[in-house]
Every structure is written in C-alpha cells, then in structure tokens.
Amino acid sequence: MTRRRELGAAVAAQLALLAVLRPGPVGWAAGAAYAAGSWSVLTSAFRRRRALGPADHVTLARVVLAGAVTALVAAHLARGGGPVAVLVGIAAAALVLDGVDGRVARRTGTVSELGARFDMEVDAFLILVLSAQVAASAGAWVLAIGAMRYVFAAAAWAAPWLRASLPPSLARKAVAVVQGVVLVVAAAGVVPHARLLVAAALGLLTWSFGRDVLWLAARRRALAGAGMGPGTRRGRRAHGARRPRVLDPVAR
C-alpha cells in the first residue's frame, strides 16, 4: 500500500471511530478538523517516502486514537461534564502503544529521525488534549503541562541555540511518561487529591525542561569560548542548523 493510501486509510479509520463514539456536533467538528490537519501534516512530512514503515503504522494507530480523544474531550468540555470512561480507556491505549512503536522500529531495523519525531509529536498533542480535559476540573494551571513543549518550540525559533540536539536521557523519557499517566489517572477521577499528583507532574516537567535549557545554555557558552559563536560559519552550524526538538529524538 502506498503512503497516500495508508494515510487515507487512517483518516477513514478516524471517521469510522467517530461514528461509533458519536461524540456530538462539537466532538465531530473537533475530530474532523483533527483528521484533516493530520492528513495535511503527515502527507507533507512523509512526502519523500513511498510507504510507511512497521513502526510508523503503530504510531499512525496512535494518531487515530489521539483524534478520538480530541473529539471526546471537546464534547466533554462543551457539555460541561459527563462520563469519561471511554475517553480514559482510549487515552490509556494510546499511551500503551507509545512503548510499542519504538520496539518495533528497533526490531525491524527501521529506526529513523522522522519516525522518532512523528512519535514525539503525537505524544505532545495527546498530552495537550489531556491537560485540557483535566484543567476543566482542576484549574487552568494544568494547561501548562500541555503547553510547555510548544512554548519551548516557539522559543527555539527565536533562539536558535535551543535547537541543538540534547543528549539521550532516561530521566527525560521517564518524566514524559509520567505526564501521560498522571493526566489519565486525574481524568479518570479514581484517585483522591489527584491535583497533587498533577502538580507534582508539572514540577517534574518544569525541572526536566529547565535542566535541558541549562545544558543548552552551557553548550552555547562553551562554543562561544571556543570561537564558535553564532556569528561565525562554524557557529551557525552548531547553534541553529536543526529544527526544534523537545522530547528525546532517539526515543525510537
């Protein structure tokens, strides 16, 4: 199956899942907008590939699940409440699959930077949507969890030294996993004082981003001290040659 057909099948699966879930007009609008946006972004991102790899198919399944979560969250917010069991179940399934695509990529020898970034962006968007769900009951401050990755990305466009590759970090991966798990638990409403868990998760995320920013700042100073400032040719390559990366690019 060619790339366009694979992506088209994912969009069809997204719409079929929405038909089963019946999230209402607001949910349908959010889900349809998500499906259209996903098609546009992924068609552009994978334009140089004839077909997707095995791990990409797993991540594509997570894209469909994230779209369902988006529709259900939008419907839940529009109604001002309601059952969340299905929402929580689908979000949990998407988080579980997050640990599958990387293993598939390694076992099939199809590890790629594009695949890792694909995986990362799905993670980031799912966390953003879940933070919106939890923020409805816990407070707007929870949105900081979902927004932090995008704020960092925006800062990286303004400050090219933030675009440099970060060294692999198990702590960074663990903190990313904690965000999803805590938000799903908080959304389920099965744990008392879940706000404290969410606050702790936000604290961990702030620490993780802060640590990476300090590392990147130290790297920038070291390069400047070695005569590789951003105004030099070598410095421009070292400081701003890459696109912004927030989560671990070698997660796959």
From TrEMBL:
Source lineage: Bacteria, Bacillati, Actinomycetota, Actinomycetes, Streptosporangiales
UniProt name for this protein: CDP-alcohol phosphatidyltransferase family protein
Protein family membership: Belongs to the CDP-alcohol phosphatidyltransferase class-I family.
Keywords: Membrane, Transferase, Transmembrane, Transmembrane helix
Spans traversing the lipid bilayer: 84-105, 125-158, 170-190
Chain residue ranges for the region called Disordered: 227-252
Sequence ranges of Basic residues compositional bias: 233-244
InterPro entries attached to this UniProt entry: CDP-OH_P_trans, CDP-OH_PTrfase_TM_dom, CDP_ALCOHOL_P_TRANSF_CS
Keyword Coiled coil: no
